[in-house]
Amino acid sequence: NSQTYQEAARHFGVSKSQIARHAWHYQIGGHSDEVDLDLSLVHDPDFWRLIGWWVAEGSVAEVGNHRRTKQVCFAVHRMEVNEVSGLIEKVCKKAPRIKMGLGNDAALFINSTQLYEYCLAFGRGATHKFLPEWFLHIDPELQREWLKGYWAGDGSWSRNTGYRLSTASPSLAANLQRLLARLEVAAYIYSDHKAG
C-alpha cells in the first residue's frame, strides 16, 4: 500500500499521509474482507456468467461500519451453491461466505466494491433491473455467457411454453427481448399479472 499511496500522492500533488488518511476514511484498499477484481475480467466469460446469475438472483447491500463495505449477494437453490460459489471463486479469487437456509434456499456473500459497482450497472431490486445500453453492444459471445448465468437463475423449460426467462422487471423483459433478437433468437413477452 505504501508505494500505491506514494504514486497517488505524486499524481494528485498531495502528501502520502493525506492519501493514507483518505484511504482509511473511505476504506480503500485496507479492508481485509474486501476483494479487488482484475479489470481484465470484462473479457472473461466466467465474469459475465456470474453477472447473469446476479441479475437473475442477486442483490447488493452496504454493510459494516458506516455501511462502507459493499456486499454482493446471490440467493440460490441449495443445489446451485457449488456452481455459483465456483464462479465467485474464479472471478474474485476468494470463496464466498455461504449461509444455508432452512429449506432449499442458500445465500452466497462476497465483499467487493468493484463487483458491487458492476452489478449496480444492471439496476437494484428485482423490479428495477435492466440491461444497460452498452451491454447490448458488447461481444455476442460474452452476451451468451451472461445468458447462461441468467438462464441458470431465472430460466425454465416445459413442453407447453418451451424456453422461458422470467423477471419481475418490465424493463428487463424488454431488454431481454432485444438481446435475444441480437443473438438471432425470436422471443415474445408474456405478462403474468396476478390479482392481489
Key descriptive features of the protein:
42% helix; 17% strand; alpha+beta; 7 helices; 196 residues
Mean pLDDT: 81
Structural class: alpha+beta
SS strand fraction: 15-25%
Q: Which sequence of SSEs, written as H and E, runs from N to C? A: HHHEEHEEHHEEH
- The residue fraction in helices comes out at 40-55%
Largest sheet properties: 4 strands, antiparallel
Count the helices. How many? 7
- Report the uncertain regions: 24-32
Largest sheet: spatial strand order: 1-2-4-3
> What is the CA-CA span between the terminal residues?
55 Å
Tell the overall outline.
Answer: globular
Structure summary, number of beta strands? 6
Radius of gyration (Å): 19 Å
SSE layout:
Blueprint: H1 2-12, H2 16-25, H3 45-57, E1 58-63, E2 69-77, H4 81-92, E3 97-100, E4 105-111, H5 113-120, H6 140-154, E5 155-158, E6 162-165, H7 170-182
Antiparallel strand pairs: 1-2, 2-4, 3-4, 5-6
Task: Provide a compact summary of the structure.
The chain has 196 residues and is of the alpha+beta class.
Structure overview:
The protein has 196 residues and is an alpha+beta fold. It has seven helices and six strands, in the order αααββαββααββα. The strands form two sheets. The protein has a four-stranded antiparallel sheet with strand order 1-2-4-3. Strands 5-6 form a two-stranded antiparallel ribbon. A hairpin with a 3-residue loop joins strand 5 and strand 6 (162-165). Helix 1 crosses helix 2 (16-25) and helix 3 (45-57) packs parallel to helix 6 (140-154). The model is unreliable at 24-32 (pLDDT under 50).
